[in-house]
Amino acid sequence: MKKIFLTLFFLFTLTTLICNAQAHISITNPVGTPTLTGFFENIMSHLLSVIAYVAVLFIVIGGIMYVMSGMGGGNDSLKKLAQNTLTFAIIGLALAVAGPSFLKELKTIVLGSPTAPVPINLNQAPSLVDIVRRALSFLLSIVGVLAIMGLVLGGIMYIFAAGSVDVAKRATKMIGYSLLGIVVSGTALIIVRKVAELIGN
Fold this sequence. Notes:
The protein is mostly helical. The chain folds into two domains: 38-102; 123-201. It has helices at residues 2-21, 36-70, 76-111, 128-159, 165-200. Helix 4 (128-159) runs antiparallel to helix 5.
């Protein structure tokens, strides 16, 4: 009997509060954005700041380990651990910083513009040919940039070979592969555009 009375009292009180509060309470969006895309962008920006702090922390730790490895005659295992820590922290930081750029390029590949809204109407959606053409253009552009960077690096290695035949051979090989990469990526880009024009017509 006591439980029934308490349950009824609780329900009556709750109903009264809800009826009185309907006109006075406004619920704000706790996420801060009305779209799912905005929600994930907020999460990504917070994650990027956390990753940046953690990466900088590990860069400092790797530097301290590197300094400590030189003290007392040089500890090779600590030096190797310090090098790995620095390398992985820098790679992680670079990936975190480059992540939004890759997402922007991916949206550009799929939708044609990084600011384009996601199409709801099927007639507004890009064709598969356009998506493949944009993806191949993007990938071939990356290959071209990497080939040019390899060409510059090979030239620098060749300049600083200082009479070392082994370094000069490696530099010559790098320059040759870079030139081949530039030719292949340029030719493939032209072929992809021509095939896309033929398919599009």
